[in-house]
């Protein structure tokens, strides 16, 4: 079993910054991809950014140039630095990790952290 614990959400004014963290713990061989998704009220959950174990990143067009994803493979932690926040970034942000316990891979989600950007 794997647990993902998120932190760093909150209320911020437009133009401000927040940093989200997600730490994975439990029993597994390795973590492959880690990422952040978000879900705004009445909308589907969408990818914000993800990162492979080798450091390759992928971003939604709406956050390119403003958000930066990074990870610490020793701490099994993924971060999302969010700058120049906009009201449309308001959502619940979820961390996702894909872990390997050979020969299988499993997908886990965090509990979500609220990010609210006021105009």
Q: Could you walk me through the main structural features you see in this protein, from its secondary elements to its overall organization?
A:
- The relative contact order is 0.33.
- It is elongated and about 45 Å long.
- The strands form two sheets. Strands 2, 4, 5, 6, 9, 10 and 11 form a seven-stranded mixed sheet that branches. A four-stranded antiparallel sheet has the order 1-3-8-7, with no helix packed on it.
- The mean pLDDT is 96.
- The protein has 119 residues and is mostly beta strands.
- The protein has no helices and eleven strands.
- Strand 4 and strand 5 form a beta hairpin.
Query: Got a strand count?
Result: 11
Helix content: under 10%
Return the structural class. Answer: mainly beta
Radius of gyration, taken over Cα atoms and rounded to an integer in Å = 14 Å
Give the CA-based shape: elongated
Topology of this protein?
Layout: E1 2-7, E2 10-13, E3 18-26, E4 30-39, E5 46-51, E6 57-59, E7 67-72, E8 77-82, E9 91-101, E10 104-109, E11 113-118
Parallel strand pairs: 2-11
Antiparallel strand pairs: 1-3, 3-8, 4-5, 4-9, 5-6, 7-8, 9-10, 9-11
